[in-house]
Specification:
The protein is α/β, with parallel strands linked by helices and 383 residues long. The protein has helices at residues 3-30, 56-62, 84-94, 113-124, 143-149, 170-192, 207-210, 225-235, 256-273, 275-278, 287-299, 304-326, 334-352, and strands at 43-48, 71-77, 99-104, 129-133, 155-160, 163-168, 202-206, 239-242, 248-253, 357-360, 363-366, 381-382. It is 47% helix and 16% strand. The strands form three sheets. It has an eight-stranded mixed β-sheet, sandwiched between helices. A two-stranded parallel ribbon has the order 6-9. A two-stranded antiparallel ribbon has the order 10-11. It is elongated. The relative contact order is 0.17.
Length: 383
């Protein structure tokens, strides 16, 4: 084949992968595949907290409204003077009928502040089944049932990626474009081919499974705890499975810098932890297929704008259909957000290879395959 032939073939293959991944994700998110039958086992829900954002009160309050017969909530905070402490204490006081505790202290087991914060919760948890959920995840009333319902004989972890919701402003729309119809879609596609990977937003563990191989401290093997979890589960010969109908993350306002910083952090962590898997990400999005199709149209003396326009209508129309079908945020302006996202993706890929440094919640960090000082366990306070 000539240049035009190869370019059309590449564009066609990319488009098929794009459409198939949308079909997989839409099927998985539209209806539940299974529910764990009663009696449901008791669960320890660990929520690391740090600072207060716009929706913090809403997401933390939702953890007290979960419909589960027996669960405890363990809020973990590194410092007693964190502004979120009074909020957590107030919620615990207003829900005295639920077993909820606030644990204060920091265990320096890794370079990851979140993992250091979570350790005390893991050690204090009373139950075999443990869910670690970020404080900005909005857990629905049936969250624990849905997580437990995805556990199979070959499962090592069940998790939910975040679905962006309640955005305010264009750059929050762009973050929705990254989270929803791109990243969530490819996670379901990876799971479908047996290569599911952990997402640290909400994770369900079986302590009896991971305890003998190091438990929570084994996740210090990588800068990102979800990357370490993925490798640990695969070493155990198990699979990472995803919850049906993933849980929302309310976004509020976002700036261009905040969206870029977050996506760069995740890209650099993926590049360090899974370099061979990260390489194909250069082909994600419509930018390269669009360039290939434009090149083919030029060689064949075909209308370039018409050809590229048809490609974008196909790609973005399929994403729009998926989002509307699933009830995800997708006003008409999201089409522009999808275009901006796809133009950013190649730049993001190059930037991921240009360094290891990133900032997470005010902490300057460096992505490394193995990080963290030896375990130290200062006293934990309960409040």
């Amino acid at each position: 084949m000539g240049i035009a032939g190869w370019a059309i073939a590449f564009c066609g293959i990319a488009t098929v992968i794009h459409l198939v991944s949308i079909l997989i994700a839409a099927r998985r998110c539209r209806r539940p595949r299974g529910q764990m039958s009663a009696p449901l086992p008791p669960v320890s829900l660990i929520i690391p907290v740090c600072g207060i954002e716009k929706f913090t009160a809403t997401t933390l309050a939702a953890s007290f409204a979960i419909a589960h017969p027996n669960y405890e909530i363990l809020f973990c905070v590194a410092r007693g003077d964190d502004p979120v402490v009074p909020l957590v204490r107030g919620l615990i006081a207003r829900h005295a009928g639920l077993h909820a505790r606030l644990l204060i202290g920091d265990s320096h087991v890794s370079a990851n502040p979140k993992l250091n914060n979570v350790v005390k919760g893991w050690e204090a948890a009373r139950h075999r089944w443990i869910v670690i959920a970020d404080c900005n995840a909005l857990l629905p009333p049936d969250a624990l049932r849905r997580l437990l319902g995805r556990w199979r004989h070959d499962t090592g972890l069940v998790c939910s990626m975040p679905i962006g919701a309640r955005p305010a402003g264009f750059w929050a729309d762009v973050e929705c474009a990254f989270l929803n119809t791109l990243q969530a879609r490819y996670q379901y596609g990876s799971e479908a081919v047996g290569s599911g990977f952990a997402q640290g937003k909400v994770m369900l563990f079986d302590r009896d499974l991971v305890g003998p191989v190091g438990g929570i401290q084994a996740l210090a093997a990588e800068t990102a705890e979800d990357a370490a979890t993925t490798k640990l589960i695969r070493e155990l010969g198990r699979h990472v499975h995803l919850v049906d109908r993933p849980f929302e993350q309310p976004l509020g306002e976002r700036t261009a810098g905040a969206v870029w910083s977050r996506q760069l952090r995740w890209a650099r962590l993926r590049r360090i932890s899974f370099p061979l898997v990260f390489l194909p990400e250069i082909m994600v999005g419509s930018a390269l297929p669009g360039v290939a199709l434009a090149l083919a149209a030029w060689h064949l003396n075909v209308d370039i704008a018409g050809a590229v326009g048809l490609l974008l209508v196909t790609w973005f129309g399929a994403e729009a259909g998926m989002a509307v079908l699933l009830g995800w945020h997708f006003p008409a302006r999201m089409l522009l957000a999808l275009l901006v996202r796809d133009l950013v993706l190649p730049v993001l890929f190059v930037a991921a290879w240009s360094g290891r440094d990133f900032v997470w919640r005010g902490h300057a960090m460096r992505a490394t395959p193995a990080a963290g000082p030896p375990a130290q366990h200062p006293a934990t306070q309960e409040a």
